[in-house]
Amino acid sequence: MKGNIINLVRRDFDALKSDRIMSNLSTALFTLSVIFASLVNDISLLPLFLFIYNYIQNLFSLDEKHPTEKYFASLPVRRSEIVLSRYLGVVVITAIYLLIAYLVNRGFIFFNFSLSVEARQPLPAGYIILVFLILAFLTSFTLPFYFRFGFSKSNGVSVILWMVLGALTLASFFDSDRSSLTDFIFCQEITGSIILFGSAVLLLAISVPLTVALYNKKDL
After folding, report:
1. Which residue segment(s) compose the domain that 171 sits in?
2. Claim: this prediction has a pTM higher than 0.85
């Protein structure tokens, strides 16, 4: 099972790389995400969410253009493994993103390059927890729809959800009292961090089996 899931994640990455437009867009969004995160400001989350949205949307779009479900049905690959591979793909991308963003942030500090006071500080744990929580929320609500109803029928719901998040992020950036998000990122207490992290894990613990159950009901 473990080998199948890893191979499925690798297949997803290879499929996106094979599409030139998708690959270039993903690279641009990922680079933008890292730079913004390294500067640690209120809008730094937005490019990351655009990148993850682009990743999920493109994968299911490719599945619809080049039907793979019937192909997988003929292989010793369970539907639960396909579901887990999509969740794992998001986790892997986020982990890579956070690692690179942290290293770039440290580079900015080392070379004394900063556009804000926050950028002179290491990427805080509060930022990592916030990223994990919001991504857990978004994937927990979008992936079940995609697996149950397919790309075309679910894309509207997904677009609305991600647009709402984007609007809230932009609103916090243009708000005259912009200190709330920055304060949250830099001043997160241990108790609050544990609660938020636990909430994210709980969301995923509920979402994954729910997605598997919905996908098992889908006719191929």
Report:
1. 2-216
2. no
